[in-house]
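ok so i was messing around last nite and threw this chain in just to see what happens. nothing serious, just curious
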Amino acid sequence: MSVLRMMSISVLGLLVNAPLLAQGIPSGATTRRNPAATTRVLVGNPYVFAAADSATAVAAGRAMRERMGKAVSRDYSVIHDSLMNRALEEYGFPKDAILTPEQVRSLGRQINGRLVVSSTMSRGQGGAHIITARLTGQGDDVGNVVKITQGATPAALGVAAVDALQPAIRSWPDARACMDDRAGKPDKAAESANKALKVMPTNGLAHFCLAQLAKDDGTKLRELEAAVAGDSLALIALNQLAVAYEAKGDTNRTVAALQQMLRAAPTDQELRTRAFRVFLTYGRTDAAIQVAEEGLRADPFNWDLYDLKSNACLFAANYKCAVETLEQAYKVDSTRADTLFFAKITASADQRLTDTLPRATAADTAAFVRWAKLGAVRYPNNLGTLQRVNQAYGYMGEVDSSLAITRKLLAIDSANVVPALAAMQALATAKRYADMLPFGEMVLARGDAQAKEQAAGILTNAALPLMQNQPQDFKTSADMLRIAAKAAAPTGTLNPQVNYLLGLATLFQVPPIDQNAEKQKSCQLAQQAQGLLAEAEAAFTISKSIRAEESTKQLGNVAQFKTRNASMLKAYCR
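result:
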């Protein structure tokens, strides 16, 4: 089975479970028609991407409803502003809300809008408004689309769009009849479709119905092409068309059909993923980017197209492109930057740092840090944003800031010790060895075997230079190695290595303590030496499994000190 035949179209709509509003005209209103006997038409406000265009869209929507009420026959009744606003408020929207086309159709279902006009308003070259309006029957997957580019005002554009849709409204009953009869009465269905096409030769629903009735592949393909010509946003028709092209081995037209599907539903993540995979199979990873860039040239405020382009960039492993695209989206409308946005842009920026062609620069590192910090400011209690800003502080060497975030992360999710491990590594790099110990204890208490082994490695690597370099610090190294010895798996290869170093770190502390104990005749110092010798003896005993000769030699030294220590204990501790 081909990739396209597996493709399922998911249209994101507004899911509403509240009870339906009361049907009919509100009390006090007058009408020439009986609403129960007419087909109700919902005309939504045009959807706009720029907040500054909202008032213009509302004005255009009112003009469209007013014009529709005058243009349709007595068989139709237009749902007026007051009823639509009541419905909007019922479902948590403000009056005159700007809804997406999918949300408009969903609202239509709730208030029994049998026909729905949804539209988008964008800006073309020079900033002039453009309206793309679509008429569909409630429950129909195919309708008719008109694009209006000429109009003195946005309201005039809306009026022109309504006028252009009148043939679609007049031909809709017959097109719908074809769909209703196509299974049981195919001849009657075809007759209805052809009747609709006499009224409107480009009726998308009628052509789609004929495509379902077609008895040969050639006829079906022609009717699907005609359906898409009438409704360029009909995903089901586009999908069937792409399948037909793929069956013919027509790669270019398959890609073109998928590109049009992305134009129709740029936010449909399932569609995007499947389309990207097909593009990758055909070696056309640029196809989705082309769709987004084409749309952005016409409407640079379209956030959904920026999102589409960024996903296409990520699918092509072009992380620099993804970061730059998301940065543009943020400039267009920063209010839409949610936790997912910050996760995507920081993940892209982080991946960019691993690129070799072109090689990442200091500016790329700065970009990751900037977006990680912005995300943490916007969402200070979000686990994901905190993790990324912690990583950013690590890149910048801001250890104290990283520690503050690490403690916050551990408070939110005490089972996740990854931040503690990262803090230990950062502190080791900064040579702040004493500060490593509490985080080592956290990993020891909360981490799994793998995390504990990592902690043991970090602590051991940090302790070794303290024992080798001048001035030597055996006490601090022993403090770290004690935790490492507990953390390292007893049956692993690291544990005896750690114990050998722990034996040295504890044994080498004894000579100065021994001398001072004798000089001061101090029982306390003699007892301190006794404890260190016992610890060294136990550690060297464990390390004999891999360093037998060296451990045996050191155990001999321990024995000599123990004999001397025993005499001091007897003399000083009475």
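not much to say yet. Confidence is low (pLDDT under 50) at residues 1-35.
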